[in-house]
Amino acid sequence: MRASVLVTRASFPDIVDRLRAHFEVSDNPDDTLWTQPELIARLQGKTAAMTAGSDRIDATLLDACPQLRAVCNIGVGYNNIDVEACTSRGVLVTNTPDVLTNTTADFGFALMMAAARRITESERFLRRGEWVKTGRYDMFIGGDVHGATLGILGMGRIGQAIARRAARGFDMQVIYHNRSPLSSEVEANCNARYVDKDTLLRESDHLIIVVPYSASSHHAIGAQELKQMKSSATLTNIARGGVVDDAALAAALAEGSIAAAALDVFEGEPALHPGLLGLSNVVLTPHIGSASFATRRAMAALCVDNLIAVLGFGATPGKPPTPVNPQVLERSPASA
């Protein structure tokens, strides 16, 4: 009897069809957002799931679905999954790193530039027909990007890719803060300098947040941190909702404590803090940092590679390319 797999969100049909060669597949082509009870009901009898950030995989769900062996998440982040609970129950978790690094770095840089140069604010002004009323010398004056100081909080793959763009393409001075400094070789490649967090906040003209979400990074940027930033600075968050205190950020933007912000991720998304919606000095996008055609296909394909491998098929049976908790494989190797 073939294993049964659930695909929780709509994806590229031809990539999902690769699963059908090996498994019984239930999918969600209408892309309905299921509640957790609905997800639990659909996971009954399923051996593995191809999940997305909207799916909460926790102890309650795992206990209700004891036959589940693998949760293969589309995305580099996996804060929607209780990895510890999965590991203790022998459930493998995989993600899709690397394939989205450059696309997300491009988007983060674009958001930062949009905030600095007030692009979305000025476009709304133009669409409202207000350009005909004024053309003052100081209309939509923003901050320069070239030659400015870029601060990066979280210097992983994406942070490093942003740093290279900043230093090589825009002659920016790059400073960063991480749990620990990078090697001197990596720093030289990125033309970046390690600083403590207070210095990062104080010296950055533009601050980009790329740190993974965890209990320790929750509200890493809150009211006190925002007060340390320059009044002319911008903040861009392409990490995860919850790393920035959105309520504190909305207050800082309204007060002019910082000049502008650009957000692709939000606390409680897809809901937004209502204070953000009425502000003109914030760029808002719906978590689309990896949304290029090639990258989204690569993410889906890697997720399927992981799922096929962990259930004993594909090029590396039993050895998925990107496991999050590989100790599960060491303890109980997967088989078909």
How would you describe the overall organization of this protein?
With 336 residues, this protein is of the alpha/beta class. It has 2 domains: 4-99 and 293-331, Rossmann fold (3-Layer(aba) Sandwich), CATH 3.40.50; 101-284, Rossmann fold (3-Layer(aba) Sandwich). Helix content is 37%, strand content 14%. It has 14 helices and 12 strands. It has helices spanning 13-20, 36-43, 59-64, 83-88, 101-116, 119-127, 157-170, 184-190, 197-203, 223-228, 246-255, 274-277, 293-310, 327-331, and strands spanning 4-7, 24-26, 48-51, 70-73, 92-94, 149-153, 173-177, 192-194, 206-209, 234-237, 260-263, 282-284. Strands 8-7-6-9-10-11-12 form a 7-stranded parallel sheet, with helices on both faces. It has a 5-stranded parallel sheet with strand order 2-1-3-4-5. α4 (83-88) links the parallel β4 and β5 (92-94). α1 (13-20) runs parallel beside α13 (293-310). The longest helix is centred in the last third of the chain and has 18 residues, at 293-310. The chain starts with a strand and ends in a 5-residue tail after the last helix. The mean pLDDT is 96.
The major pleated sheet works out as: 7 strands, parallel
Beta-strand content bin: 5-15%
* CATH architecture descriptor of the largest domain: 3-Layer(aba) Sandwich
Enter the CATH topology name of the largest domain: Rossmann fold
Overall mean pLDDT: 96
C-alpha Rg, in Å? 22 Å
Structural class from helices and strands? alpha/beta
- First-last Cα distance: 10 Å
Q: Any low-confidence stretches, pLDDT <50, length ≥5?
A: none
Kindly provide the name of the CATH class of the largest domain.
Answer: Alpha Beta
Q: Which shape, going by the Cα principal axes?
A: globular
Percent range of helical residues:
25-40%
Q: Total number of β-strand segments?
A: 12
CATH superfamily of the largest domain: NAD(P)-binding Rossmann-like Domain
Major sheet: order of its strands? 8-7-6-9-10-11-12
The count of domains is 2
Order of helices and strands: EHEHEHEHEHHEHEHEHEHEHEHEHH
- The number of helical elements comes to 14
